[in-house]
Amino acid sequence: DYDTSLRFYVNFTNTAGDTVVARFRRDAVNPLLADPTSRKDLVWPGGLAFIDQPFSNHNGGNLAFGSDGYLYIGLGDGGSSNDPGHRAQSPSTLLGKMLRIDVDVPDSDLEGYDVPGTNPFVGNPNVLAEIWAFGLRNPWRYSFDDPARGGTGALIIGDVGQGNWEEVDYEPAGVGGRNYGWRNREGAHPNLNGLVGGNLPPYYVPLRDPIHEYDHGEGQSITGGMVYRGNNLGASYRGRYFVADFFGRLWSLGLTIDGSGDATVNSVIDHTAELGGATFISSFGVDAGGELYLVSLTGSIYRLYLELVPNGNFSSGMTGWQTFATPNPSYFVGGVVSGVLEFYRLAPPPGESNQAVVFRQTGVPVGAGVRFAARFDLGNSSTVRKRISVLIHDSNFNDVTVCTFWLPAGAPLRTFRMWTHTIEAWSNATISFYAATVGSAGGAYRLDNVSLQPDFDVSNERTDCTDPLAPAPPGGAAGPNLIANGTFGAGLAPWGLFGSITSQITAGVFEFYRPAGTPAGVVLQQTGAGVATNGILTATFQLGNSSPGRARVTVLLHSADFLDLTACTFWVPGGQGLANYTVRGFATQAWANATLSVYPSTIGTVEWMRLDNVMLQLTPGQAVLGTECVEPASAPAPIGVSAGHTRDKHR
Q1: Whether the Cβ atoms of residue 251 and residue 270 lie closer than 8 Å to each other
Q2: Contact between residue 251 and residue 242 where contact means Cβ atoms under 8 Å apart
C-alpha cells in the first residue's frame, strides 16, 4: 500500500556485521526523498532490532513482497563454510531460511510486523513462526512471478552453492514449509563436506530438489533473476526465467507448470555471448513495463532487449543487408571496408533523378503500438558535409518514421539514435539508410554497429532523432514566403494530392487521412521557387487531430526530384486542436523547386488530420541541430529509467 502509507523497507548489514530490516517513510512533500526520522528497525524474536550474523559472509540481503501482500526476507546460513552451526536446518534460528511477515501494522507496533496465521510452522513451539522455508545457503536474489502480468505468483530462488553446485529453487504460490536441503545437500547432491561439522540430519524431510542447477565448470556464484513478463522480447520469451552467474553468464529457462503448480525446466538458452563480456552481475530489476535489467558491480546497468538486427557491425560482411537503387542499380556504390560499410549515391545525368539505399528487413512481424529504438554509428569520409535519412518502417512502407541527420566533412564514426513506434501491425520490421547526398568525389557514408530493437524508456507518442554532434548550417539571407496559400481559405489549390488520400476543406482548414488498407499517400505543395546551396528553409504550420486516438504525420522539405530532403515525424494527440509545429533544414545542393510534403502515417476511415496556416520561407538563422523538428510545448517528453545496487560475495 505504498501509494497511501508511503512506507518502504530496506535490508542492510550494519557496522557490526548484523542484518537489519528497517522501515522508512517517504518524505511527505518530496517523492524523491525518504524521511530519515521515520526509520523503524524491525524487532525479531529475542527482542533484538537486528538478526545476529556469526560470520561476515552469506548475508543475502534481498527483500520482496509476494502477491499475498506479505514481505519475504531471505537469509543466508550465517556464513563461514559448510554451515558449521547447521543453522539452515535449525528451527530456533532465522538464518538459512526464507521468512514471511505481515508489515501491515500500525506505526506504534513494537516489532513492526505480525506473523501471518497461515505461516507453515505457526503453532509449533519448536519452530520460529516467522520461518516460511528451511535449507538455504545464501539466497542471492529471489523474486515472484508477477500475477499482475500473467504470472503464477511462484517464488523462485537463486541459492548460491558451496564448492560444486549452484541452484534454482521453485515454490508455487502459497506453498510454504519446504526444505531445500542445505547443508545436507548442495543442489540435488549429497554434501559430503557437510560431515565436517558432524553428521547431523536435516530438521525434516522430504528435501526439495532444485528445478535447475549448474556446476562450477559453468559458473561459480548464482544471481537469481526473474520470470520475463514484458513485451519487448516478444512472446517466445514471455514466461521464461532469466538467471545469471556473478562471473558473467546469463541463461533463460523455459518452464512447464504441472497441475500442482510446480515447475520443470523444458529448455535452457545460453545468452552469455550477448552480454558482450559483462561480468559481476549482482542483481536483476524490472521496470513499470515488465522489462528486465541487470546490475553489474562495474557500475553498469544492462537492459535486455530483442535485437532485430543481429549483424549490424558488418564484421562478417553484409549478410542480411540489401541495397536498392533506382532507376539503375549501379547508382548505389559501396561495400564493406575493414568491417565498416561504406557507400554513396552516384550523381544522376542532367535532368534525371535517382535514389540509393541500404536496408535490412528483419523478417520480424510486430503488432500495433510496439515501440522501437534504433542506434547506429555514422561517419563521413568525404571532404564535404553530407546528409542521410534513416527510416524505420514496414517493408510495404504503409507505416514509416524518418529522421534526417547531418554528417560533417571527415566526421569519424559516432553513435546516432532514433525512437518511435508502430501505428499499425507490421509484417516485416525494416531499417533503411538513404544516401541523401550524391557524388563519388565527395567520399562515402560510413555505417557500423546498427541495432534495432523494441524500445524501453521513450514515450510512445513521440519520435526522437538524436544527433550526438549535430552541426549547424551556415545561415543566409532571409527570403519571401514560398507558399502564399497556406490557409486553405480559398480551397486546396495549388496544393496537390498523391497516392491514397481522402480530403476535404472544412471552414478553411484542410482535413485528410489515409484510408485503411491503402498504400502511402501525401499532400504536397510544389512552390516552383528555387533554393541555393546551403539555403535554410523554415516551414511553420499547424496540425490538429479530430480523432480520439493519437496520429502520426511525417513532414518533408525537399527538392521536387527528392535528391535532397529534410524529414521530421510528429505525433498529434487525439482530439488536439490546431497547434504550431516547425521543420527547419537546409539545402545541401541547389533546388529548382522547393516542395513541402505531408505524409499521414496513421490510417483510418474518419480520423482526420487537420492542416492550416502553412508558411515555407528562407530564413537567415541557424538551425541548432542541423535539422530541427519543433513540436508544441505539450508534446510528451521521453522518460528515462535507471536503477542500481551492489553486492559482495565472500566464499
Answers
A1: yes
A2: yes
